[in-house]
Input
Amino acid sequence: MIRTQIQLSESQMKQLKDLARRRGLSVAALIREGAELVIRSGGPVDEDHRRRCAMAAAGRFRSGHRDLAGDHDRHLEEAFRE
Output
């Protein structure tokens, strides 16, 4: 392994220590696990790309509800109840 040094905010370090303690890991192991997740996912999320994909998908599918735009909260609530 290669030793490296990083800087974290106090809040990040506190949360990492708490999580490491709960999971029975060292903070270093937890950070390595996080690095592996970022590497496997292809890197950080590109918010502009995500937004473009969402906009391209908008309006391309039919829900079968004619009042979806005006009554979306009720439809969402019903979907979660099912």
User: Anything to note?
Assistant: Residues 73 and 79 are 10 Å apart (CA to CA). The mean pLDDT is 87. The radius of gyration is 21 Å. The chain has one domain: 1-60.
